[in-house]
């Protein structure tokens, strides 16, 4: 008689092992392994299996399919999705509680329903009356918007096969369960099975599906990483739920770029596209020490940001370094460079950096603005609010050029900036901006 094979699975990350392990080698969780039964193993094998064997074709014979899209009636969401919603796509939206995931999707569902599309909103967390109250506040009520409060996957699939819808919203994936599995809703096995069934239904019927996913304390989607691999698009909300501005950033997109972000504003009528986005991240006014302006690129969109710095005398042997919205390791590097090149005693001072507006800077264009803000705070010398700083600072102390310099300068001109500190004069920049060329970080002292 053949020996029964056992399979254990981590309920935190989905890592599998042939034996029980106390600590997961993938996510370091303790006592998270449970043994899968025969039904769960068969479902797992079904999920991994390939429906049919296809004959390989030369790449020269492959025909390119034109991706058809339709608008979500929200310009910011269309931008992040790559131009609109793709039929048959499976989109996962994550974010902290209260950041606006359900609000945004209910608003989108209402907009499309009012445009004549049949939309089904499935909720496993709220009652139909609660959703209706929010829909009335958002102005999303429509005869084409249908609500379903159900958490049984098999019952949901029965309803979906009775009548076809143009869009499906699931809130949230962790609340649904399948009768095929004995595991609790939200477990690794349940999330994998439900996502696979929804993906198969959406692809077969060419119906776009949006699913909401809860996040863990670390900020990642709760459940196995395979969930992010199975879907077509992964979007995360960034920003504090107590602030008006929310950022929707794409981390995976099979139909477009992941460099775009959507900027939304929370209002009385819900989450809407932010108007005049460029003015949301900096303020005009009196020049103050420790403040410098730069322009970063988020995909194809230039954003004017304010970099704030505070340098104060340290009362401890090891001075503190803190950065909000800026990479801490890069801040440490810049401070070491300033100590070496400019003989500034930052080893005796605490240094704090903050990017206004809650946005995270992931490129090196803001280096020059960070250096200027630090020196301005250290010497208590205000910087003119009419000046922008654009340049990457290297370890050897020179200031290097950045990409899309002309686009950044055109945005600076639009926002009525009159001076620009740049590593070299642009070839196609605005003529009514006065340029100051700084090719070495030491020259910023001469300019200030």
Q: Could you characterize the architecture of this molecule?
A:
The structure is a single chain. With 448 residues, the protein is α/β, with parallel strands linked by helices. It has eleven helices and 21 strands. The chain has three domains: 8-35, no CATH class; 68-275, 3-Layer(aba) Sandwich (Rossmann fold); 279-447, Ribosomal Protein S5, domain 2, CATH 3.30.230.10. The chain has helices spanning 38-48, 75-81, 101-114, 128-138, 153-162, 188-205, 226-230, 328-342, 367-379, 405-414, 443-447; strands at 8-10, 16-17, 33-35, 90-94, 119-123, 145-148, 167-171, 209-213, 233-238, 245-253, 261-267, 270-273, 291-298, 301-313, 321-324, 349-355, 387-389, 392-393, 399-400, 419-422, 434-437. A hairpin with a 7-residue loop joins β10 and β11 (261-267).
